[in-house]
Structure formats: structure tokens, C-alpha cells
């Protein structure tokens, strides 16, 4: 059934603050539709954010919402989820927020396999502060703090999440928005820690310094460089040169943290500690 | 249940008091001389249905405590100087967003990692001003194991009552000391819960305060959907980053919460001050030496008294001022290079009494003999 995303928005908080052509709204739309697909009520969902363009998503959506400090949303969410395991906890973060300043928290939240659904909106840049390079900015790109091109290699946040123990990991783009919605839907249903990376366009902070002035050019770049993980299985390394993978990378079952802790409480109350 | 006589370590008393006060969530990171609090709560919290988690760092543990408190549970964390520095970021968040939580800082010598883990009183100003911005804070400081227990309960109560972070500033001496304590029966201890919302969801504004400037609280998932942000915000909880009037009003309110209950929050003990000609103003482990110094000096016929501060912030200026024209001098012994002495000087700037700092910052306690000598220099 079709859903009007507006039904889930706090329309009295409009207009939003994102730049023209920004992809954050596309990613947010997919998240809202995914929540609708799963059938969660507004009251049982909490959306927690940190700082940056991604963080501004939750002031305008009509769920339980709070914004935290830069990079720390997952740590706040961990405390919240442990005390309110019945609630559906969603964290929306960005490449600077989640992979930079909050990178350590991301690793350890993956490791704990706590039931939090994380959407990492990767616009390849620190957009809110005006276009500085992030840990996920492609090497050689231009940014206000990389006027000669970035020297640093970026890393693959999905591989990092997988290595750290996340039990559901996937990636899509603003162009592949249907896939994004499908991945977030599955991530929400998944019991344990899930991470979905949403590659989005930032024409103002990133694109115009990197020969992609318009949002259309950036979306075309996403279309032309993304390869579905299933299709990639039959492709040679040469064919995959310069491409990135999208789709579902990890979907496995492991004991969930709050369930394990509940068991610990029951044991402590019946048997006592060693 | 009756009063219990126990031999307790300071940090142990703190952990027991936290459970008695209703704390059901602890997140922390190992650091000496505070770790016993985490170790004990790891054991005790699950027994009462609470949660303990050791986070990946001090920043995350502060964040998790706030997250748990937003979930509706009383939360506490414990650390020492270096960890306290890392907690400052989210401590400011709790002050701004009005989230109750308690932070215990068992002080050790600094700067930086300093003297792990010899005692010091070097975090008095960090406790007041460590996080950026003009935030409100309450800081309580025990000098005995019994006070550590009672002030932990007070800290949790103040925090819940006023929706704000409260700091307990103990030190390596008081934290590791074992003393005989007589604990009151649990039923005699006043436990405060945060004010609950009384209006229906359609009339609800999450940050609309009552007359005491404290907004009632309702946790998420109870039918009251709302937003919270650490940006300057309006009564609806939404960012109002460029609204000067809203900013002015909010910041005043955050501070007025404390000022309106100042009489209750500012706690001191005045010992042998009635006829005192010299006062010693002391707190924490140094107050132990000061008490002993007063006894020794009195035995020698010197009229000396002790003002012991249990609340460091807000600073008990009214108590110090009261003696400003009655005593010749106020001696302020501190295990730092002179921090709270500045507040004593401010309180006495138009008074007759002189202010004499007495400082030691080598990891050793100030001895009663040092204080008695300082008294004799005045006389």
C-alpha cells in the first residue's frame, strides 16, 4: 500500500534546512517507508541522531526523537535500548558522525549485537560545516580542507561493520532508493545490530568541487558505479575496477545483547554471581 | 529493618547508596581509584533488575547513562580525573537537555594522568567549569564514608528533582578509606522521583517548566511523542538556534532551578564556630585533617573552628560571609594550587577576615600539624 511520507512528518517544522539537491531527504523517505512497511506504530519507534546533516532528520519526523552529541548517538542508543528493550531503536548517522568521530562507538555497538537499526547516510563530506573531507571521502577528492585533493584513503564502512560483528549489513544509494527501502525494511525486522549505508549526493558540499555540479550528475555517478553484490559474483576484478558494491552483504543470526542481559538478570536473581 | 552497623570502604558505600537511591543503570570504564564502584554495581545491579555495562570509553559510558535516563531509569557513572575530562562533553549535554544523571569523580593527582593514584583535590574547577558553556551544576563532596553514602543519595535525589547532572567529587582517600558507619534504615531515607507529566499528550510541551523551573518528565513510548536537542530549544523541544529571547529565558531557567532550592542544596557543617577567632574552611579528605587540627588547637586554648563544605557548587558563600566580620582569618587548606580559595576570597571581599590559602599538591594529605601551624601564624 502506498504511503504518504508527509503523514509521518512534523509538517509544522518545515521547511527543513538541507541544501537544494540534497540526498538526505531521499534516504529519510526510504527509512520512513520501511518503518511503515514493517508496521511499527509511531509510539514504539525511537529515532536517535548525532550531529551533522544526517542528524537533522529526526526533528522533522513524527516518532519519538532526540538528537545527541557528535558521533555518540549509538552510545546514547545503547543506554536507551538496555533500559527500554521493547522499543524499536533507529539511529541515523552520517559519514563524519558515524565513521569519523563516532567510529569507535560504531565498532563496539556492532560487536555487542544490540538490537539497533543504524542508517549511515554517506554523502562523502562534512556537509553541515561546509564541505570538509570525511573518512569516507574518496581519495583524491577535493574538499575545503583538501584543496589539493585528499591524501587519505577512505574505508569501506560495510566491511568494517561486518568485521566488527554486525549481523545485518547492506548498502544502497539515493539512486537505488527502492533497494534502500528494502534493505532498511529487512534491517528493522532483523534481531541484532544492523547497519545500512545509504550513499547520497551532496552537490553543494561535495559535487561542485568534484566535477558533479548538479544532483543529477551525482545520481548518474551512483547509477554507473554501483554494482549489485549478486551481479558482482560473476564479474572479473577488471570489470569491478572503480565500482562499489550495493545490496545485502551480511544477514546472520547471533544472540542479541538485551536478551542476553535479561538472561543474566534472571541468573543473578536466582543463582547469584560467582 | 533497623539501622545497620557496617565496616565499609568509601567507594563501596557509594555503590550501596546508589542502589538504595534507586539507581538501576551504570555504565563506566575502568579507572583507579574509582573502579570499585563499577565492580560492585556489576554484581549488585542485576540482582535488583538493573543494568551494568562497561562501555568502550568514558565518553560512551557518559552517553549510555544519559540514554538510560532518557529511557526513564536512574543512572550513575564513576570515574577519576582523566576520565572525568572525557565525560565533560556529554555532561554538558545532560545539563542542557535536562537529563538527570550522577557522575562520581574519585579525584587523583594531575594534571593529565598525573599521580595514579594518589589523592588530590584538583578537579574542583573542572567539576564547575569543565564542560563548555554557562551550564548549571551541583557538586557534592564527602569527607567520610558515611557522608559518601548520604551524599550519593542526595546527589541522585537532586538530580531527579531538578532534571540535571549532579557530581560527587570524592578523592582517593575517601574512596579507599574503610570506616565504621551506621547506616539509617532504608525506610527512613527519602528517595525522590522525577516529576511526572500530568497533562494529556495534546497539551504536552516537553520543556514547559512548572513554577520551580523544572519541566515534568515523561519517557518516550508512552504516547507522548516529542523531540529533544542540545541546540538551544523552545518549550516544545525543537531547535531555536537563532532565537535570542528563547536562549536568554532557557539559560536563566537552567540556573534558577538551583537558585530556587539553594537552601536545600547548599550543605555545610559549622564545627566549634560559635566563639571561633580563626576559621578553617575545608572539604573532602582535607576536612578530616582540619577537624583534627581544630581539636588539637582547642586543646591548646586556641579559638579555632571549622566550616566544612559538603556542597562545593553552588558555593556556600552565605555561610562564609556570616563569619566574615567575626573571625580574624579563614584558612583554606586544599590539595591543589588554590582553587576554591578564590570563592572564599570573593565571599569575603568586603569583610574584615583575611584569607590564608594552605596548599599541597605532591600526593600527600595536608596534615593536622600543618593546619595548626597556619593557625598559629595568624594568632
Automatic annotation (TrEMBL), chain A:
One GO biological process term: cellular respiration
Thiamine pyrophosphate enzyme TPP-binding domain location: 51-197
Keyword Transferase: no
GO molecular-function terms, A-Z: oxidoreductase activity, acting on the aldehyde or oxo group of donors, iron-sulfur protein as acceptor; thiamine pyrophosphate binding
Record InterPro entries: 2-oxoacid:Fd_oxidoreductase (IPR051457), THDP-binding (IPR029061), TPP_enzyme_TPP-bd (IPR011766)
Keywords for this protein: Oxidoreductase
Protein name according to UniProt: 2-oxoglutarate ferredoxin oxidoreductase subunit beta
Species whose genome carries this gene: Thermanaerosceptrum fracticalcis
Record lineage: Bacteria, Bacillati, Bacillota, Clostridia, Eubacteriales
Automatic annotation (TrEMBL), chain B:
Oxidoreductase found in the keyword field: yes
Entry keyword Oxidoreductase: yes
Superkingdom, taxonomy of origin: Bacteria
Keywords associated with the record: Oxidoreductase
Domain Pyruvate flavodoxin/ferredoxin oxidoreductase pyrimidine binding stretches: 17-250
CDD domains: TPP_PYR_PFOR_IOR-alpha_like
One of the Pfam families matching this protein, by short name: POR_N
Annotated GO MF terms: oxidoreductase activity
Domain Pyruvate:ferredoxin oxidoreductase core stretches: 276-371
InterPro entries per record: 2-oxoacid_oxidoreductase, PFOR_II, Pyrv_Fd/Flavodoxin_OxRdtase_N, THDP-binding, Transketo_C/PFOR_II
Protein name: 2-oxoacid:acceptor oxidoreductase subunit alpha
Amino acid at each position: 500500500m502506498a504511503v504518504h511520507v508527509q503523514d509521518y512528518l512534523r509538517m509544522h517544522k518545515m521547511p527543513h534546512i538541507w541544501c537544494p539537491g540534497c540526498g538526505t531527504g531521499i534516504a529519510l523517505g526510504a527509512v520512513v517507508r520501511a518503518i511503515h512497511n514493517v508496521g511499527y506504530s509511531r509510539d514504539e519507534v525511537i529515532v536517535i541522531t548525532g550531529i551533522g546533516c544526517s542528524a537533522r532528520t529526526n526533528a522533522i519526523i513524527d516518532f519519538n526523537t532526540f538528537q545527541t552529541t557528535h558521533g555518540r548517538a549509538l552510545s546514547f542508543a545503547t543506554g536507551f535500548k538496555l533500559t527500554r528493550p521493547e522499543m524499536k531503536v533507529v539511529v541515523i548517522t552520517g559519514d563524519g558522525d558515524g565513521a569519523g568521530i563516532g567510529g569507535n562507538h560504531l565498532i563496539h555497538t556492532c560487536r555487542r549485537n544490540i538490537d539497533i537499526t543504524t542508517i549511515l547516510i554517506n554523502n562523502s563530506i562534512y556537509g553541515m560545516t561546509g564541505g570538509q573531507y570525511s573518512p569516507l571521502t574518496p581519495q583524491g577528492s577535493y574538499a575545503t580542507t583538501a584543496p589539493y585533493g585528499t591524501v587519505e584513503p577512505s574505508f569501506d564502512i560495510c566491511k568494517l561493520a561486518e568485521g566488527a560483528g554486525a549481523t545485518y549489513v547492506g548498502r544502497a544509494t539515493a539512486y537505488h532508493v527502492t533497494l534502500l527501502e528494502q534493505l532498511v525494511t529487512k534491517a528493522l525486522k532483523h534481531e541484532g545490530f544492523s547497519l545500512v549505508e545509504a550513499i547520497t549526493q551532496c552537490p553543494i558540499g561535495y559535487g561542485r568541487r568534484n566535477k558533479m555540479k548538479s544532483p543529477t550528475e551525482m545520481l548518474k555517478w551512483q547509477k554507473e558505479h554501483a554494482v549489485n553484490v549478486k551481479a558482482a559474483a560473476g564479474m572479473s576484478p577488471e570489470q569491478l575496477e572503480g565500482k562499489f558494491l550495493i545490496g545485502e552483504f551480511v544477514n546472520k543470526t547471533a544472540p542479541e545483547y538485551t536478551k542476553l542481559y535479561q538472561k543474566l538478570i534472571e541468573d543473578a536473581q536466582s543463582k547469584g554471581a560467582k | 529493618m533497623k539501622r545497620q552497623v557496617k565496616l565499609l570502604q568509601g567507594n563501596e558505600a557509594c555503590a550501596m547508596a546508589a542502589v538504595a537511591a534507586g539507581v538501576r543503570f551504570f555504565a563506566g570504564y575502568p579507572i583507579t581509584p574509582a573502579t570499585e564502584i563499577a565492580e560492585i554495581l556489576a554484581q549488585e545491579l542485576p540482582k535488583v533488575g538493573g543494568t551494568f555495562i562497561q562501555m568502550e570509553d568514558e565518553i560512551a559510558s557518559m552517553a549510555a547513562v544519559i540514554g538510560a535516563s532518557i529511557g526513564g531509569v536512574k543512572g550513575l557513572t564513576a570515574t577519576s580525573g582523566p576520565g572525568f575530562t572525557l565525560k565533560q562533553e556529554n555532561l554538558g549535554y545532560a545539563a542542557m537537555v535536562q537529563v538527570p544523571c550522577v557522575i562520581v569523580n574519585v579525584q587523583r593527582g594531575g594534571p593529565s594522568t598525573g599521580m595514579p593514584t594518589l589523592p588530590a583535590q584538583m578537579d574542583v574547577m573542572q567539576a564547575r567549569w569543565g564542560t563548555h558553556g554557562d551550564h548549571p551544576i551541583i557538586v557534592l563532596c564527602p569527607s567520610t564514608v558515611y557522608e559518601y553514602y548520604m551524599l550519593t543519595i542526595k546527589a541522585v535525589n537532586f538530580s531527579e528533582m531538578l532534571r540535571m547532572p549532579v557530581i560527587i567529587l570524592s578523592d582517593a582517600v575517601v574512596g579507599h578509606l574503610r570506616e565504621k558507619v551506621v547506616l539509617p534504615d532504608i525506610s527512613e531515607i527519602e528517595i525522590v522521583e522525577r516529576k511526572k507529566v500530568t497533562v494529556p499528550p495534546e497539551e504536552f510541551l516537553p520543556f514547559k517548566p512548572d513554577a520551580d523551573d523544572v519541566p515534568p518528565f515523561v519517557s518516550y513510548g508512552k504516547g507522548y511523542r516529542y523531540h529533544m536537542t542540545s541546540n538551544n530549544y523552545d518549550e516544545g523541544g525543537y531547535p531555536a538556534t537563532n532565537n535570542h529571547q528563547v536562549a536568554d529565558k532557557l539559560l536563566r531557567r537552567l540556573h534558577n532551578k538551583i537558585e530556587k532550592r539553594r537552601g536545600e542544596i547548599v550543605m555545610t557543617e559549622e564545627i566549634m564556630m560559635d566563639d571561633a577567632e580563626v576559621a578553617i574552611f575545608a572539604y573532602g579528605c582535607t576536612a578530616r585533617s582540619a577537624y583534627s587540627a581544630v581539636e588539637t588547637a582547642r586543646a591548646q586554648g586556641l579559638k579555632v573552628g571549622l566550616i566544612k563544605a559538603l556542597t562545593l557548587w553552588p558555593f556556600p558563600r552565605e555561610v562564609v560571609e556570616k563569619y566574615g566580620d567575626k573571625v580574624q582569618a579563614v584558612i583554606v587548606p586544599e590539595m591543589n594550587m588554590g582553587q576554591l580559595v578564590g570563592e572564599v576570597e570573593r565571599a569575603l571581599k568586603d569583610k574584615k577576615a583575611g584569607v590564608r590559602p594552605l596548599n599541597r599538591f605532591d600526593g600527600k594529605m595536608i596534615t593536622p600539624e600543618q593546619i595548626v601551624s597556619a593557625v598559629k601564624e595568624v594568632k
